[in-house]
Amino acid sequence: MAGRPTIIDVAKEAGVSAATVDRVLNGRQNVRTDTAKLVYEAASRIGYHASRLIEQRLSETLPRFRFGFLLTKPNQAFYQSMARHLEQAVNAAPGIRGEALVAFCPTQTHRDIVQMMRDIGAKVDALAAVAVNHQYTTAAVTDLKAAGVPTISLLSDYAQGERAAYIGLNNLKMGRVAASMLATAIHAPGKVAVFVGGHRWHGHELRETGFRSYFREHHPLFTVLDTLVNLETRQLTHEATLDLLERHPDLSGMYVAGGGMEGAIAALREVREPGQVALVVNELTPESRAALSDRYALMAISTPLEEFSRDLVSLMIRAARGAQTALPVQRFLEPQLHLPESI
Q1: Do residues 157 and 203 lie in contact, with contact meaning Cβ atoms separated by under 8 Å?
Q2: Which 3 state secondary structure label does DSSP give 127?
């Protein structure tokens, strides 16, 4: 192509008429979004001088959506990383002009979570939230649904039958994976412990169930101690772990099924040698990465945040467009398993 590309060159590259390119450039009449996109891509490929103007015209034709995301633990590295991935996924979502409204609930009480769900839900086209499984949560999801705002549960499920979909790991399977890893690493039957954040976290309950069922089925000689509730806090987990190790000096393994792993790691560093107690945690954070490096942690099971965010935004777009009946009831992602030698 000799000289500066022209409208005719763009039309030829895109496989449309020069009149169509002119309409896209000048915003005249309605041009199908997919056709306008073809024109923009062709203009970009051949270096047409007005390709940025075409991009602007294209964005003006796209539907606007505002998506709300309610996360928890605002100071936790995992949720901070999730927030960044979600914002990036909304900005990169094809076929829409998206805006992400990300908020963090400073507590994990059902009243605070539900109030924030209602507040954010009143401002968005679709809501995705990390929340406890409680009747108040279900009521909020039901009310938002009646108002035309679909809700998607994140990481830990709730409001089944009312929420539009669930996306996250298969928590029952994750409990079994953790148990399998501990049983393999420990070799001889011993005592193992499991921490959950609380019994209102549906995902934690499933992880505990999977954990116990694996030992019951495949390694019945292991002793699974009574479940410990840590409210997903570092301090409580630290204190509970120290007490656990004092009461059970022969403890062989631990699984922290929710948050608070930092406390367990700190306690092990204080009173045990690396690898003396096999520890499985969830999510790869600076703390869990360091614990893997030092062999205080055996494995970290993590959520693939890039895939998670991209798929979640896709689900939210479909839900906001009214295609809720076509959504999968559950979208299970493949976990990422991190070992000391793999980080």
Answers
A1: yes
A2: strand
Q: Are 117 and 129 in contact (CB under 8 A)?
A: yes
Q: Which residues of 104-127 are buried (b: 16+ CB within 10 A; e: fewer)?
A: bbeebebeebbebbbebbeebbbb
Q: Which CATH number describes the domain made up of 64-168+305-334?
A: 3.40.50.2300
How large is the greatest C-alpha to C-alpha distance in the chain, in angstroms? Answer: 82
Residue range 49-94, pLDDT digits in tens: 888 777 777 776 678 999 999 999 999 999 999 999 999 999 888 7
pLDDT at position 257 is 97
Looking at the chain, the number of H-run helices and the number of E-run strands are 13, 13
Residue 150's pLDDT band (cuts 50, 70, 90)? very high
Residues 244-284: tens digit of each pLDDT: 999 999 999 999 999 999 999 999 999 999 999 999 999 99
Structure tokens at 247: 């009461």
List, by residue range, all CATH 3.40.50.2300 domains of the chain: 64-168+305-334, 171-302
Strand-pair partners of 168: 332
Q: In the CATH scheme, what is the code of domain 171-302?
A: 3.40.50.2300
Residue range(s) in the chain whose domain bears CATH number 1.10.260:
7-61
DSSP state of 228: E
Taking alpha carbons only, the member of 79, 115, 124, 121 closest to residue 282 is 79
Task: Determine the pLDDT at residue 154.
Answer: 98
Whether the predicted pLDDT of 29 surpasses 90: no
Q: What are the phi and psi torsion angles at 189 (to 5°)?
A: -55, 140
Contact 210, 194 (CB under 8 A): no
> How is domain 7-61 classified at the CATH fold level?
434 Repressor (Amino-terminal Domain) (1.10.260)
